C-alpha cells in the first residue's frame, strides 16, 4: 500500500514537471512597446490608417507614416500583413525589403508604419481604361472591392 502511494505521488509529480516544462518551452514572442522591424520609423507626421485614403485624395502614391491595428499577419517572411483602415476597408501591407520577418503575434497590436501608400486599380477600372467592354452586358465601374483598394510598401514598423 505504501508503495502504491509513492508510485501515485511520483506519477503526479512527473505530470506536473512535464506540464511546467511544456509551458516554459513554448516559443512565446514578446512584442514590447517600441520594438522595431526594418528601418526606424519617424513619427513626427503621423496619420491614422482610417484617414489615409481621404488624405491621398486624387494622388495614386504618397510617402507617409500611419498608425493602425494589425488585423492579421498573412506571411511572416517579407512582412505581409493586413491593417485596419476603418469602415470594413483593409490596407494590404508588406515590407520593401524581403529579408524582414515579422511575428504572427503582431495580430491585434497597434503599429506605426512608414513607407509608400498606393491606390490599386480594380479589374473593372482596368477594363474601362483599356476600352474592353462586353456587348449586351452592363459593366460595373464603381468600387467593386473596397476592402483591397490600398496597399502599403513598408520601410519600417514600430509596435505601439
Question: Which structural class do the helices and strands define?
Answer: alpha+beta
Which superfamily, in CATH terms, is the homologous superfamily?
A: Nucleic acid-binding proteins
Counting DSSP E segments of at least 2 residues, the number of strands comes to 7
CATH topology: OB fold (Dihydrolipoamide Acetyltransferase, E2P)
Output the helix-strand order.
HEEHEEEEHE
CATH architecture: Beta Barrel
Radius of gyration: 24 Å
Number of separate helices: 3
Percentage of residues in DSSP E strands = 25-35%
Straight-line distance between termini: 59 Å
Q: How many structural domains are formed by the residues?
A: 1
Largest sheet: 5 strands, mixed, barrel
| Spans where pLDDT lies below 50 across 5 or more residues | 136-148
Q: Strand order across the biggest sheet?
A: 3-4-5-7-6
CATH hierarchy class name: Mainly Beta
Question: What overall form do the CA principal axes indicate?
Answer: elongated
The average pLDDT score comes to 80
Concise description?
The chain has 160 residues and is α+β, with helices and mostly antiparallel strands. It has helices spanning 2-25, 52-56, 123-130, and strands at residues 36-38, 46-48, 61-75, 80-84, 90-95, 110-119, 150-159.
Q: Could you explain how this protein is built, in words?
A:
The chain has 160 residues and is α+β, with helices and mostly antiparallel strands. It has a single domain (32-134, 143-159), classed as OB fold (Dihydrolipoamide Acetyltransferase, E2P). Helix content is 23%, strand content 32%. It contains 3 helices and 7 strands, in the order αββαββββαβ. The protein has helices at residues 2-25, 52-56, 123-130, and strands at residues 36-38, 46-48, 61-75, 80-84, 90-95, 110-119, 150-159. It has a 5-stranded mixed β-barrel with strand order 3-4-5-7-6. The longest helix is centred in the N-terminal third of the chain and has 24 residues, at 2-25. The radius of gyration is 24 Å and the shape is elongated. The chain starts with a helix and ends with a strand. The relative contact order is 0.21.
Amino acid at each position: 500500500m505504501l508503495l502504491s502511494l509513492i508510485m501515485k505521488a511520483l506519477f503526479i509529480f512527473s505530470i506536473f514537471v512535464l506540464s511546467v516544462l511544456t509551458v516554459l518551452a513554448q516559443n512565446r514572442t514578446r512584442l514590447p512597446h517600441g520594438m522595431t522591424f526594418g528601418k526606424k520609423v519617424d513619427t513626427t507626421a503621423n496619420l491614422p490608417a482610417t484617414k489615409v485614403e481621404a488624405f491621398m485624395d486624387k494622388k495614386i502614391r504618397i510617402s507617409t507614416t500611419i498608425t493602425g491595428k494589425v488585423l492579421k499577419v498573412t506571411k511572416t517572411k517579407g512582412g505581409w500583413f493586413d491593417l485596419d483602415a476603418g469602415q470594413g476597408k483593409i490596407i494590404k501591407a508588406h515590407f520593401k525589403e524581403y529579408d524582414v520577418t515579422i511575428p504572427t503575434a503582431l495580430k491585434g497590436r497597434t503599429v506605426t508604419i512608414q513607407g509608400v501608400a498606393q491606390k490599386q486599380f480594380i479589374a473593372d477600372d482596368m477594363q474601362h481604361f483599356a476600352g474592353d467592354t462586353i456587348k449586351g452586358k452592363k459593366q460595373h465601374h464603381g468600387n467593386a472591392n473596397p476592402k483591397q483598394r490600398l496597399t502599403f510598401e513598408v520601410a519600417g514598423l514600430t509596435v505601439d
